[in-house]
Specification:
By secondary structure, the protein is of the alpha/beta class. It is 45% helix and 11% strand. The chain contains 14 helices and 8 strands. The strands form 2 sheets. The protein has a 6-stranded parallel β-sheet, with helices on both faces. The protein has a two-stranded antiparallel sheet with strand order 6-7.
Length: 394
């Protein structure tokens, strides 16, 4: 276990009707003018937005709104939000939604005090020096952004989707009522579950002592999430299953399952290239698609850890590490397929002619590797991974 500093300051208000406390919570936070950031009108039609607005007004808190945040959130909406927040002298941000909405709020929070383009943070041209405080009402369990320090934004004009990390944009609080996810479409629910799993799965495969406590936490969280997913296939309104998924979303990406380890995401950057190139691709679906191909390309380097995954998560016994590692990859792929995730790039409308642009996006026009040894991927590795996912070879 390496030396580390760990911070997880987000206060979680978990359970039924917890969103009714949002006015009192923001009053304690000394908020005066809040910018509510959200995506579709679903939260208004279902009454959530109206309840939130009422609770704010009851506590003497004024609000403004920024809506229309799309999946794979865009820099233009961040710029719009920064301008609105400055114009209205906003002092707090409230994100109501999932990862795309939360990341947009984070980027606005960071851009508020910055003189340049807020996408500079994502391009690594600037670092965050100050940010507005952020709160969250979670309506989609997926990205874990409600407890993380990461913020992923896409610039459509540049065709770049990239993230930055700063503890200054970690939300101060997250309200998590599993019932608020009941109306999520099945595809979004299960794509979110794929992303939750991937946040711990990627941390698990990074180098570390074979007895790392964080590895055991990661495997337990993955298995727990998979069990909940199978229950939701039967009953989408299973409260306890929804509760597991929602809490696991936060715990999978707040740093806990990588504690005491160095880790470098390698599948996530590949997906960022994919959905940056094809913005209609849902992020969770993209990582679920890519992981089995990455695992096969890097199977030998990860044989022991894949074997442990097979034994701990899929209850595979009495096999060699080589055999178990192959079973682990196949079993994980089968799980993703069982919850409706894509199996090929063809399903996403991509063809052979799209491979070179994808590789170039992922590797900065073949000028950099992804991750670091022993998990690093060069352009040749990336091409092999994407090629494995293409059924049509012409």
């Amino acid at each position: 276990m390496i030396d580390f500093d760990f911070v997880a300051p987000t206060k979680i208000y978990f359970g039924r009707d917890k969103e009714e406390q949002v006015g009192e919570i923001l009053l304690k936070e000394k908020a005066q003018t809040v910018l509510i950031v959200y995506g579709s009108d679903r939260i208004r039609k279902e009454g959530l937005l109206g309840r939130v607005e009422s609770r704010l007004l009851e506590n003497g808190i004024s609000y403004r709104e920024l809506n229309g945040i799309r999946p794979n959130p865009v820099a233009d909406k961040v710029r719009e939000g920064v301008a609105l927040a400055r114009k209205e002298n906003v002092d707090y941000l409230l994100a109501i939604g999932g990862g795309s909405v939360i990341d947009t709020a984070k980027a606005i929070a960071a851009g508020y005090y910055y003189d340049g383009d807020p996408f500079d943070f994502n391009l690594k041209k600037a670092t965050v020096g100050q940010a507005l405080p952020i709160g969250v009402i979670l309506t989609l369990a997926s990205a874990g952004s409600e407890g993380s320090n990461s913020c992923v934004i896409q610039d459509d004009a540049l065709g770049i989707k990239q993230g930055f990390n700063s503890d200054l944009v970690r939300p101060r609080f997250a309200i998590e009522n599993p019932e608020l996810t009941f109306s999520c479409p099945n595809y979004q629910t299960f794509a979110g579950i794929s992303d939750i799993i991937m946040h711990s799965l990627e941390r698990y495969f990074d180098p570390g002592d074979e007895n790392e406590l964080a590895d055991d936490w990661a495997l337990d969280l993955i298995k727990n999430t998979m069990v909940a997913a199978k229950r939701l296939l039967v009953d989408p309104k299973d409260y306890q299953a929804r509760a597991r998924v929602m809490l696991n979303s936060t715990l999978s990406h707040n740093g806990l399952t990588g504690l005491g380890k160095k880790f470098f995401f390698v599948v996530h950057p590949l997906e960022h290239a994919l959905s940056g190139y094809a913005p209609k691709v849902t992020h969770g679906a993209g990582v679920a698609l890519i992981w089995p191909a990455w695992a096969m390309v890097k199977r030998k380097e990860n044989e022991a850890k894949l074997a442990k995954l097979a034994r701990r998560v899929f209850d595979i016994v009495d096999t060699s590490d080589e055999e178990a590692s192959i079973i682990a990859i196949g079993s994980m792929r089968d799980f993703f397929v069982s919850i409706g995730m894509p199996q090929s790039l063809d399903e996403l409308g991509l063809r052979v002619s799209d491979l070179d642009p994808l590789v170039n996006l992922a590797t900065g026009n073949r000028t950099r590797v992804i991750g670091c040894y022993p998990q690093s991927l060069d352009a040749e590795d990336v091409m092999e991974i994407f090629s494995r996912l293409l059924k049509t070879k012409e």
